[in-house]
Model the fold of this input.
Amino acid sequence: QVQLQQSGAELAKPGTSVKLSCKASGYTFTSYYIYWVKQRPGQGLEWIGYIYPGNGGTYYSEKFKGKATFTADTSSSTAYMLLGSLTPEDSAYYFCARSLTTVVVFDYWGQGVMVTVSS
Amino acid sequence: DIQMTQSPASLSASLGETVTIECRASEDIYNGLAWYQQKPGKSPQLLIYNANSLHTGVPSRFSGSGSGTQYSLKINSLQSEDVASYFCQQYYNYPPLTFGSGTKLEIK
Done:
């Protein structure tokens, strides 16, 4: 069965970076895009962008250009998101997700990881 | 970017009741709309896509409708396990994907 397993919660200081992971299993990793979504506690969902592990192609929402960097390791079927120059506004849950093949809606999600930015 | 306006922000209803949540797009999205359910402490789960297509395994008491800029999610015979937040998402004009602000559903 398809699973997306995310790394554990992160506590980071302002100005530093964190690297979140999303390990995929149960499907061909290189055949599906991996998307990343941000959710501040009690708030709505924000789309960050995607990576296509098949060729490493990436796309970033305008708001997250320079903030997020996506990579993927096909040998371990793991996608990564590096969040840099952290500020308290980056404190949020971050989800990875996979889309249906026909339309860009998310049928599988990781469990989410909480990033807390505090001095 | 297409803006999604979702209403109401919160909703309280009795068990067995029918509830409706609405999403309005800032321009025509040609049925490129999905609905998600997010229970407390969990990741969102896909309910509906293409405005009215029920995702695999989703109970039939959930239904979606609409066209143009106006869409709605209806939950018939409200159950206790339906307590959650609900979000709409447009994907017609992508990128970027945009979401509604969410509706928190509680049992009265």
Observations:
- The CA atoms of residues 77 and 91 of chain B lie 29 Å apart.
- Chain B touches chain A at residues 32, 34, 36, 42-46, 49-50, 55, 87, 89, 91, 94-102 (CB under 8 Å).
- Chain B has no helices and eleven strands.
- The two ends of chain B are 36 Å apart (CA to CA).
